[in-house]
Every structure is written in C-alpha cells, then in structure tokens.
C-alpha cells in the first residue's frame, strides 16, 4: 500500500524525469545524434507513409465513407469482435493504414457520436498496428531482403491483434449501437472536408514527430550506455525496442543474426513500443483511456506475434539477410518506397469512387432529420 501511494504521489515520476534530464545533459552529443536519426526517419519513412493515410482516413470519416466501409465487413467484425458497423470501419482503417490512424478515426467517430466510449476503449486495445507499407516494404523488403517475410510479419501482427479482439468479445460480449441519430448530420462539402482533414492530420503528424524525436534521443542514450557498461546485446535491443519501434528494429538488425533479428522484430511490431503508446494516448486524451489494460494487451500481442514468427521460421525456412546500416539503407533502395505510393494511390482512388455515394447519402440523412 505504501509503495502504491508513493507511485501515485508523483515521486517516482519526478525521480525518473530528473534521471532522464541528467542523462540527456551528460550525453548531449549522443542525444543530438539520436535526434538526427529521428529526423531521418521522419523525412524518409514516416512522413511519406503516414501523412497521406491520416488525411484519407479523416476524409473517409467526415464524408461518411466509413459507414460504407463498415457495412462491407460488419458481419465478420460483429461475429468475431462484437463491434458495430462504425467500429468495423475504424478497425479496417487502423489495420490497413497503421498507427495512429485507427485511434484518430475512432476519436473522430466518438466525438461525432458514431461510437460509444466503451467501443472506443475496446478498439484502442487491438485496432492499432504498424502499417502494411512499413512492415512489408521497409522491414521485410529493405531490412531483411524478403518481402514475403515482411508480409508474413504483417499477418502475424494482425492475427495477434485479432485474437485480442476475440478475447475481448468473449469477455464483454457484443457492443450495442451508439444511440442512433442522436446528432443531426450536416452537409459537408468535399473541399471543406479536405481542408479540415489536412489541418487535423498535419497537427497530428507534428505530435507524432515530437514523440519520435524524443524517444530516438532516449534510445540513442540507452544504446551508448549499454555499450559502455557492456550489457548483453539482447538486453540493449530489448530496451530500445520497448522504447521505440524503429530504434529497436534498427538495433536488432545490426547486432543479431537474421533469424534472431526477425523474431525480435516481430515482438517489437506486436508491442509497438512506448513511443507509439504515448502517441495514441495523446490523441485519445479526451476519452481518458487507462494505461494498464493497453500495455497488457500490447505485451500479449508482442508475445503472440513472436511465437507466430517462430512458427513461420520453423516451417518455411525463409532466406533472410540483414541490412547492417539499419534504416539508412532503406532510402538508398528507391523501389522500397514505391509500396507507400501504391497504397496511397489505391486508397485515393477508392475514396474518389465512394465520394458521390457518400454525398448523396449525407444529403438524404440531412433532409430526413431536417
């Protein structure tokens, strides 16, 4: 009881803040090098792969295309995860577009009254996974030289998340639809929706950039300290992966054999790292989610993903090679970034095809309510 009071009083957090401050001051050049690596990641990987999906997902939700997408997968999502149609749309966007698109879409629907807080909290535990382009193109294709292995890694992450969703449904049952039509739908022009989507997405991206830069600096300090103190390479890699996904993946591919690096990468991808955890909680601050259930779910997903990846290595024996310079080699291979372009263009074409239908339905709902 006394230790719990000490934890809740803020004393522990104050000690940690002072420790990290002294760590950064003592290793300012190392922290600056970590910031440079974070900027490299933002410029060459995260911004090209994430910003278009943030904008497109916001447009989907604002124009009503999310409801159309939700109806397509409503039955399996209801049977497996107990979600409503709108929750199914959030799940699809989160799994296809990557973190933090699922949470951003869920927050928009929560504020619009399209999903309940209970459904939002359930989605938070399994609807946020690394994007397809990152795992297949960057991790699989560029870092391990095997796109098929990257696709399997992506499927392992999705299966681990799906098992979490099934467990939550068995525990809590089906979620009831959020009070139908409690708010009056309004007509929104495409250009107004596009302007709003760009503004919100850029603001969200700036928050993501801040988290990435901070944890990149912190991971660099941890890596150097682990080297100086001659800590086991596995422990140093686990610390980096627990803090930030890309830093952890970059560490394992440069320090471990291909098979071990692939297994650790799978575990990091399932867990996603503390940086992504805080990004999600910053986006969803208005909903006041709890940290312990989220971390428990993500740790379990990391363990399940690692076990599935081990099963894949045992059965398929894929040919894996590691990029010794980590993510620095991903930009030198121009073809690896084409994955992001293809996914973005496909999503854009799908959105353009759905806009006329969504506009007609929005006008109909507006007239009925009026």
Describe what this molecule looks like in 3D.
With 370 residues, the protein is mainly alpha-helical. It has one domain. The protein has 18 helices and no strands. α9 runs antiparallel to α10 and α14 runs antiparallel to α16. The termini are far apart.
Oligomer: single chain
Global structural class:
mainly alpha
Which blocks of ≥5 consecutive residues have pLDDT under 50? Answer: 180-185, 331-338, 361-370
Gross morphology is globular
- Main sheet: strands, sense, barrel: none
Any descriptors?
370 residues, disordered C terminus, globular, single chain, 18 helices, mainly alpha
Please specify the SSE layout and strand pairing:
Blueprint: H1 2-9, H2 11-26, H3 28-63, H4 65-72, H5 74-81, H6 85-97, H7 101-112, H8 117-126, H9 132-143, H10 147-172, H11 190-228, H12 233-243, H13 245-255, H14 258-271, H15 273-283, H16 291-316, H17 328-332, H18 338-369
Helix pairs in contact: 3-7, 3-11, 3-18, 4-6, 5-6, 6-7, 7-8, 8-10, 9-10, 9-18, 10-16, 11-12, 11-15, 12-13, 13-14, 14-16
